[in-house]
Design brief:
Elements: E1 2-12, E2 28-38, E3 44-53, H1 62-68, H2 72-76, E4 79-80, H3 81-92, E5 96-100, H4 104-115, E6 126-128, H5 129-137, H6 145-151, H7 163-177, H8 188-205, E7 211-212, E8 219-220, E9 222-228, E10 231-238, E11 243-254, E12 257-266
Parallel strand pairs: 1-5, 3-4, 5-6
Antiparallel strand pairs: 1-2, 2-3, 7-8, 9-10, 10-11, 11-12
Helix pairs in contact: 5-7
The chain binds zinc ion (ZN).
Zinc ion binds at residues 213, 215-216, 218, 238, 240-241.
Length: 274
């Protein structure tokens, strides 16, 4: 069994001009895969590093460009995703555990695979190295990769936000915090599917939330509402307090448990009442 410690960089929507729209089917498009293969003793076997040519967000988001130092002409010469993921998949091999810092990268990896119709990669064995580090340091807030590198006094030799360089730092952290217990390996695909079912169920309920006046706590009538992916907005007017109320409900997650959290606030409009 090998460990595949990987890191991704992705490009995302940026409104360069009026009429530019994000693709709701793919929010984070992978532009770089960096990975290190380790054996059971956590010794390095080989590396993987590819720049990927985006097809949805072809022009680099200026923020991402600044952070990663990857520009539009560089990604334009990259490998198409399906070709890249095919070679990544064969490099990963059959008996491997995918490992990454946090959950963003594995989620984006699966989203991109689904979007581009590649279903051969398995997400059944996964280690969240950020979570191992949090247990190790008894932390409750998710730390950045940079902060973990600093705390563990890992030598910084290459810039952050390059996928392969970040994968190297994640390997350094992994070697310091991993106790080789099999508990660390989770079936991410199964957990994620269960989460998606829970989120769908909560989405059916989110617009049923009552809207209350934050001042007098009365339930008031909704006079406007709209839903935005995992958020629900409603408006109302408390005739008792003579105030406009804005209600927001959102699906949130706390240590793996999903729930709807609602907030009612006094809504101040720029219109001055007569
Ligand atoms: Zn009221």
């Amino acid at each position: 069994m090998n460990y595949i410690v990987f890191d991704l960089e992705f490009n995302m929507f940026f409104k360069f001009k009026e009429g530019d729209l994000a693709n709701p089917e793919l929010k984070n498009e992978i532009i770089q895969i960096g990975a290190v293969k380790l054996n059971e003793e956590l010794e390095t076997i080989s590396n993987f590093d590819l720049i990927i040519k985006p097809v949805i967000y072809r022009r680099m988001n200026p923020y991402v460009k600044r952070k990663t130092n990857i520009n539009t002409s560089r990604v334009a010469q990259g490998t198409p995703f399906v070709k890249a993921i095919e070679s990544f998949h064969s490099w990963v091999g059959d008996d491997s555990v995918l490992c990454s810092w946090g959950l963003d990268d594995i989620l984006a990896l699966r989203d991109n695979c689904l979007f581009f119709g590649f279903d051969a990669l398995s997400f059944d064995k996964f280690i969240n190295i950020q979570q191992l580090y949090m247990k190790f340091g008894n932390l409750s807030k998710q730390p950045s990769l940079e902060s973990a590198v600093e705390v563990l006094e890992i030598e910084v030799s290459t810039p952050f936000h390059d996928a392969l360089s970040d994968a190297f730092y994640t390997v350094d952290i992994f070697r310091k915090v991993y106790d080789f217990s099999s508990d660390a390996i989770m079936n991410w695909e199964k957990a994620q599917k269960e989460n998606e079912i829970k989120i769908e169920a909560l989405k059916q309920l989110i617009d049923k939330a009552a809207i209350r006046c934050p001042q007098c706590d009365r339930i008031i009538q909704k006079n406007g509402e709209f839903t935005k992916t995992k958020k629900y907005f409603a408006f109302g007017f408390c005739t008792e307090c003579n105030i406009q109320i804005r209600h927001i409900s959102r699906i949130t997650q706390k240590s793996g448990e999903y729930s709807i959290v609602s907030n009612n606030a006094i809504y101040v409009t720029s219109k001055v009442s007569e």
